[in-house]
Design brief:
single chain, mainly alpha, 4 strands, globular
Length: about 220
């Protein structure tokens, strides 16, 4: 198990500066990613749970003012924390975790909606409103997640919850973003899916590109 964790830490250096002072220590172990990166990729993972549960595969959020405001607020919070951090107004990992979570959730929500909107054929895709229950659920999950880091940092189980969340978040976010990138680059592939396995195929391509990107970065470094 220790060899696996050491390998994860070494590979995580490709994504993060891994500064110890800016990394959460849970269960006497430092996470492989800094607190902000942990928040970003954990936000992507839990965003997948929330957005997937709300939309499924064939729907996306309607890009109305409520949706835009939700995304702007999340990204604005992340940028505000980053701006405050570089000016050394405070130096605490919990705000970094929370703001990273907000950013990861925002990116995942946009990517999921755009991917669904451009993948499915006419008649197979529907739009839906953001809705207050989704916003409330997102705030609740972010609050609980941050509270675990604050109150239960001595628990080993907290370490593994965060470790698994951020690692799955990395895979999910890069996979979906790459699948969307393929659709945007090759416009002739858009609006052609009409079976669930077509969505799975797009995800497989996205994951394949993620692995290729990872291997290329390893080769370069």
């Amino acid at each position: 198990m220790q060899e696996i964790l050491e390998w994860i830490y070494s590979q995580s250096a490709l994504l993060c500066h891994q500064i110890d002072a800016r990394t959460l220590m849970l269960g006497d172990e430092l996470l492989p990613l800094c607190s902000r990166c942990t928040g970003i990729y954990s936000g992507a993972f839990w965003g997948t749970v929330l957005v997937g549960g709300r939309l499924g595969l064939r729907r996306s959020f309607r890009g109305d003012r409520r949706f835009i405001a939700f995304i702007v607020i999340l990204i604005g919070f992340a940028l505000l924390d980053w701006f405050i951090g570089i000016h050394e107004v405070y130096d605490h990992n919990l705000p970094r975790l929370a703001s990273g979570f907000a950013f990861g959730l925002a990116v995942l929500t946009v990517v999921w909606s755009m991917l669904s909107a451009r993948l499915w054929a006419a008649g197979e895709h529907r739009h839906t409103d953001l809705g207050r229950p989704f916003v409330a659920a997102a705030v609740a999950v972010a609050a609980v997640y941050t509270a675990i880091a604050a109150a239960f940092f001595e628990w080993t189980v907290s370490y593994y919850i965060f470790l698994v969340s951020e690692l799955l978040g990395v895979v999910i976010l890069f996979t979906l973003a790459n699948a969307l990138m393929v659709l945007l680059v090759f416009s002739n592939l858009q609006h052609r899916a009409h079976l669930r396995r077509h969505y799975l195929l797009a995800a497989v391509w996205g994951f394949f590109l993620f692995v290729m990107e990872w291997l290329i970065v390893l080769w370069i470094t």
